Amino acid sequence: MPQPQTLPDTPVMRQYQELKALYPEAILFFRLGDFYEMFAEDARDASPLLGLVLTSRQGAPMCGVPAHNSQHYIAKLLKAGRKVAVAEQMEEPGLGKKLVRRSVTRLITPGTVIEDELLEPSSANFLAAIELDVVGWGAACLDVSTSEFWATQALNDRDCRKLIDLLARLGPAEVVASPAAAARLKLKEILPAKACLTPWEIAPAPTRKDWAQNPVWANHPLALKAAQLAAQYVQKTQFHLTDVLSPLYRESGSEMQLDETAIRTLELVESADGEKKRSLWGLLDSCQTPMGSRKLKSWLLHPSTDVAEIALRQNSVEELLANPEARTGLARLLREIADLPRVSSRLSTRQASPRNLGALRHSLSQLPAMEARLSQILFTSGLAVLAAKLKDLAARLAPCRETLARALADHPPARLSDGQLIREGYHEELDELRSLKTDSHGHLSRLEASERQATGIGSLKAGYNSIFGYYFEVTKAHQDKIPARYTRKQTLTNAERYITPELKELENKILGAEDKILRLEARLFEALRGEVLKYHDQILAFAQLLAELDVFQSLAQSAAIHDFVKPQVDLSHDLDISEGRHPVLCALLASGTFVPNSLRLDGRDPQIMILTGPNMSGKSTFLRQNALIALLAQIGSFVPAKSAKIGLVDKILTRIGAQDALTQGASTFMVEMTETSHILRTATSRSLLILDEVGRGTSTFDGISIAWAVIEHLHAAYKSDAEGPRGPKVLFATHYFELTELGREREGIVNANVEAKEWTGAEGRSELVFLHKISPGPADRSYGIQVAALAGLPASLLTRAREILTFLENESAAGRLTGAQTPGRAPELPLFTGHPVLEALRLINPENMTPLEALSALSELKKRI
Fold this sequence. Notes:
The protein is an alpha/beta fold. It is built from 31 helices and 27 strands. The chain has a seven-stranded mixed β-sheet with strand order 13-23-24-25-21-26-27, with helices on both faces. A six-stranded mixed β-sheet has the order 3-4-2-1-5-6, sandwiched between helices. The longest helix is centred in the middle third of the chain and has 27 residues.
């Protein structure tokens, strides 16, 4: 590890070190002329992240970026989970100044960004704050860019698993917690690499009066503490933010619980390679607005368990699906809508540009057309509620829309300093100043004509001199006509030049018009910003309504494209899916090539399906697709199936795939067992469990024993009355054919297999074809060697594998390797090759041994047994 670098002892470097000491956790962008420079360890850390060449100054490492393009580099650092402190020059350099005063004007952290260029449009940018106590935890979630702010808490969550799952669903850009809480939760290990962990301690402070008046916080003190932590962190680190934060309390009881494993293995918002486009979110996202995309993602990560809410959403999707013209028109209008929550947030934090106001004006101008579009359709239930809300919001936002239409120019500038922000005719003084600026000669000519008439001097003329300014010039022949209000300014050979109060006033107006215009436009812009903020709540309500409309049209579009059907969602325990398909895989494959499959579970009979079949045959696809269909149904979407009845699912718990967690000291098998333990402890009779190859990470005996016991536990642990469910619905894929005995003998457990066919090809080689069809009953064999052949293993190796397999099958048939499994007692499991006595016996050649040698060898083998 490189040692800290000593910087040169110069005034500039001393100033740098003073500022760096104030923000040791951040990379300091130190303004030097047209560049932001980084020095010492900051330069070492930033150069590889930014792709910069590391240079040096007087032996100290340094690198820099152009000030005009700094946002691009800041964005890279934020994505890497770093913070950036921006030190600006607070005065202009000039002659005689040995050192320009500098100060940090902004501390940019991953969780407090509001600039468009630093944000991902379709994803929320959450700051999470965590408070731990002996009785539980509290968590607050804040997106400064949209003003979304809520808090929740949980008691008696000893291992904080619910908190970990919450963080997995949020995917926060930054997590704020005390050092003790971060250590206890092992946040460094469990958070994604791109998330920034900020240890933060705050001094006890009184609860804000407006928060204290909300009675909900009295019953949720940990949630309140977390909300205070988030608010104080934002206010202390973001000097540009005003106090506009007000949290809500959120209960988690009305949503399906998804843990980190389910989110990852079901590829809800990103695929295994980290891409959105091959995820469920990527498939469904035809949203026309960023806020719609964010809403859809939130629904996918927080499916509803409110049957009435689900039905309302389904009806909305159904109505738009049945009205393609309305759907297309709505999408066209939504394309014209800006990201209103982020625009409104920038207005609240004084970071808005003139174009932000222009975007808001344009968005609000779509309200009448959108209201008319929805009113043309006689909605039955789903969209009728939203249409009524839209009509009400249109009326309440009309004054704001009209004010912006009257005040803003057609094409507002990118920056306030560029001018031409306010529309002509909106403000009389501004119009006069603009007229002076653009038509100064005309104003002077009119005053000249007025003075000629007033004085009777026909030869009087107005002029301008860079030294004396504006003047009236009168020849000496008309000296006797000069009024007393004229003041001599300059004497020429044949004329005199004068100034009048009116001309002086005009001069001041003309010469100061540019500066006055900019100052007046800035005041008018600030007044407009304040006027718009009066409608802050209505704008956010409008944005939320449009986001929901956008999600509905997107889900309807997906249903139309991919032939989804409306599922029945009720309070039963049924999972009855006819000809279901994996939504993403089916869309990626050529049309007609995906093989649909059906499933029926009801939590009692059948409660558990044991699925066997070869590798690569589609077992995992079948497991995942049924989980995704249940999840889609509960966000209010249509589903990829011929028909589907979904009894409400409270949790989807998965154990799929093999991975280790070496940084946490966990092997692949340990991770598998930890996930299985979590499932067994948290599953309820309404849960859907997806278990793939439980027990494969250890020896055969151990693996089968564990898998067998897991199924027995799930089958027996939740017994209820004769009419209710026996336990959670379970899809259990395995290569342990011994487990199929459970399906033969136990009520509520069924066997199924994925069909495969083997035949001899043209060259006499055995070929395997996967039919991907789920059929009743267990598979007859695993086809592992055939799959190995498809993978390209050497032919000699495969030949040897077949010889060993034949031997083992013969030994098993003769009863020398395995005993029969008996339901109801511990199974007598097979003893496979690998025992040292068996290996030694194979090496013995009796034909070359004397009787004495044979007896001796037999005695030795007996001892080893």
